Amino acid sequence: MTNASTGVKAGIDLGGTGTRIIIRGESGILNTMTLPTAEFCQLEQQDRAQALASYVLALIPQGMELISLGVGASGPVDTASGIINNKDTLECFSFFPLVDELKQILGIHVAIDNDAVAAVLGEYHFGAGKNSQRLLMVTLGTGIGVALLDKGIPFRTSDHQHPEAGHIPVSGNPATCYCGLRGCWEMLASRTWLQQNLEALLPLMPFEKQDVSVYQAMSAERKEVAAIFHRYGNYLGRGLVTLLTLYGPDLTILSGSAAHYYPLFKSGLEESLIRADAYAINKRIVPSELGDIAGALGATVIPELN
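The chain above was modelled as a monomer; its predicted structure follows.
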């Protein structure tokens, strides 16, 4: 039997751009690594689980034993079969039994869930969501991820899946999202929209190379820059007000790369959340405390729920 002090848990945040691995022990995070997901896509499909497992094992401190592995993946994810079905942003890990292969290779309990669920579990257990009874988290990255915890348990649809609540209609935009929906929230409120519009206005300033302080200074000097952030906040609020109305969370956490700009789009967001007193909603919204590690850290908890 593994001694509690020597047993460690691994978590993987499997995204379209990057893959982050965390090893957690009794004392906290023991090791971590981030890799480009494209590295795995260059391998034959039958070799990808082995490569992923090898990276995990290489991070286990000497004298310690891996007892479980959780994977948070960009969805849709079939949590029962352990198969990712995401041809749009995570095709190289989709449509094969990744969880079963990892179980066979590692000989331990392995479980998978949507990356938004992994991130909200991270914040609930280790970050800004501690003590929340009904927690909503919105992840603003390449797309939009949404997850809800009720007393620490993920909200599920009737078929036990994670609802893809980033794909809800919020506008009359005639463009069709890859999900098949016109006027989709993800198309207007993901980091992708913000990046594209800022780079169109400031073509000599690549979005990913700029610090938040740069845009803070530019927003103070140029009204058109401030207007983009305000509009982004408006778009984000259009979908968020629906979720707040339906779910009634006691706390909402914004995470993902676009959440770093919360002070710049906060006024636009708050404008979209205005309701009459009789229809008031809980507008307690805070940025992520864990930042980019929330998904991988939360993934270490997934096996405990499955």
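The radius of gyration is 20 Å.
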